[in-house]
TrEMBL record:
This is Retrotransposon gag domain-containing protein. It comes from Colocasia esculenta (Wild taro).
Length: 71
């Protein structure tokens, strides 16, 4: 019984660590996007095509070797 409780506690800790990491990544992406809108699209053209967003997002956050495998 103790081993099962220990395993569950370890899994819970791992899950919480993953959630914290994902929150940080979402916050980082949000800051990046807000900054990009202010600098690159400073003319107020906030309507960005989905393809353009995906291209910019991948260039910023996904390593090239991973992008190559995605295609």
């Amino acid at each position: 019984m103790q081993t099962q409780a220990h395993t569950q506690a370890a899994l819970q800790a791992q899950l919480e660590a993953h959630i914290r990491m994902m929150k940080q990544r979402v916050e980082r992406a949000d800051v990046w996007w807000a900054s990009l809108l202010r600098t690159r699209f400073e003319d107020g053209a906030i309507d960005v095509a989905w393809d353009e967003f995906v291209r910019l997002f991948r260039a910023k956050f996904i390593p090239e070797h991973v992008q190559d495998r995605m295609e």
